[in-house]
Amino acid sequence: MTAFLHVAAVQLTSTTDVTANLERSTYWIRRAADEGADLIVLPENFGCFPGNDMDKLAHAEAVEDGPLTAPLRALAMELGVVILAGSIPERGPDEHHTYNTSVLIGRAGETLAAYRKIHLFDVDLKGELTYRESAAVAAGSDVVVADVDGWVVGMSVCYDLRFPELYRALSEKGARVLLIPAAFALHTGKDHWEPLIRARAIENQAFVAAAGQWGRHGPRRVTWGKSMLVDPWGTLLAVASEGEGVAIATFDRELQDRVRAELPSLTHRRL
Question: Which of 24, 51, 82, 93 qualifies as a FRET site for 6, CA 20 to 30 Å off?
Answer without folding.
Answer: 24
